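Proteins fold reproducibly. Consider a sample protein:
=====
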Amino acid sequence: MQPTFNEPDKADDHYWIEHLTFGMRVDVQLLELQKRRYHAELMGLRIGRYIALRFDPQNWPLGEQLTGMAVVCRYLVEDELGEIFAFKAEVLQLMRFPDHLIFLTFPDDVAKRSLRDTARNEVNLPATVTFAGRNYVGQVTDISEGGCRLLLPQVPELQDWDKTEVALAIECTQGPKQALTAHVRNHREGREGVSVGLQFVAPQAWVQNLS
């Protein structure tokens, strides 16, 4: 099974390697275990030899024989358009001391695709979002007609983030408060809270008037 991206979306070696950062989150899909996904973080790599990830033993199937298993890895890079990279590899080895590490074969090919079609403008707009009936206050840090990125200091308690529908109210200095409906496209937890990528249900032309 290859990542389901088209051939024109193939990323050249220098491009995808330059977008790797230590500690970044990597989703690892184990293809022989009902294609389940697990989370890990990038610890290092040796070009042409291996990629090393750190994993949480409480969230990994350590009772399974993983060596030689095929995996698909995906990671998100937030630039102007936002891109997700994916590659297929095999498990080389697991280590449990002095840390929990998994070594993967170095990928032959890496695919990429943009998460949105138009670049977003950097802003700093107060916003309130409603997840499962509960309100959370945060800041919209970038926005386009099709969606935005929302930074929340408090992480919502959600079991399933994917495609969750939310109500969003954005405070605008150049006009009235904007009440929108959006879907969660991605999220990433960090020291400052959680960064949530949202896609609006309908395009928002008023965004063009933001300075």
